[in-house]
Amino acid sequence: MSEQKKREQLFGIKPDREVPMSWNARAIYQDDGRCGFQLDLVANRQQIVGGTEKERELFGIWVDYKGLPALRKLAKQHLLLPSEDREASDLVDGYVITANPKRSGGHIYLGIWPGLVRTAHFRLAEEVARAWRERGGKLPEADENINAACRSVIVATQREYGCCHLGIINRFQYHGDAGQTPWMWPWTGDGSAVKNFSVDFVAPCEDAELVELLEERFAEQLKSAEPEAVPTDKILKRLEMLGGVHLLWT
Q1: What span, in angstroms and rounded, lies between the C-alpha atoms of 64 and 66?
Q2: What digits encode the pLDDT tens for the residues 85-127?
Q3: Whole-Å CA distances, 222 to 145, 152, 162, 215
Q4: Under CATH, domain 3-114 is a member of which superfamily?
Q5: Beta-bridge partner residues of 178
Q6: Suppose 111 and one of 13, 96, 155, 245 were both cysteines; which one would form an S-S bond, judging by CB atoms 3.0 to 4.6 Å apart?
Q7: Distance of CA 118 to CAs 25, 41, 92, 206, Å?
Q8: Domain segments of the chain: what residues?
């Protein structure tokens, strides 16, 4: 069976690589009477494959509120015609979205699945959960699978975005560093060059707002009797908005 056929086995477009979860659909795609085309879903021609029940529920909510509007915008921007066999795709919130009318004359085939970074992050979470179960609610020291999964997230970020920045959150962890180590720096090497615990997070780009939040927290740490207890909530929220990942080393 050809690779093209393999991707058509479900209702819509199947991922071209192994992913933890995907949404696929065949939708009605017809002239809307206003020099455009209307994309309408049919309830029994869509499905989510993979993931746990809770993961599928959350993924479905994202598809409904962000994925489908993005697919409609994608089809419009790329001027996809029902008579064409042409695929358009984009990356939205770390998810790959893709559409192709496949010369169906009235339907359009759709697919959404995690991009490289989201997939790598999912694998990291799986490894952490596995180690947590095996150790009865404690994480082991020097777990090779967890640390390798952290490096995979870094490599995936470089591959997906074409750029990658590493960073630290706690300067107190780094030999009493009072400012010599930058908060963020570019990375272009391979994953094995990153030592365990040498970085706290990875992001697709450098971000002035994130650096400002890191500076503000560090100033609070210098005044605190318990510097590690100073909250990181704002930092992690901004990191997530950037498409970055907080790494967990053992």
Answers
A1: 6
A2: 999 999 999 999 999 999 988 899 999 999 999 999 999 999 9
A3: 35, 33, 36, 11
A4: PAS domain (3.30.450.20)
A5: none
A6: 13
A7: 21, 26, 11, 19
A8: 3-114, 117-246
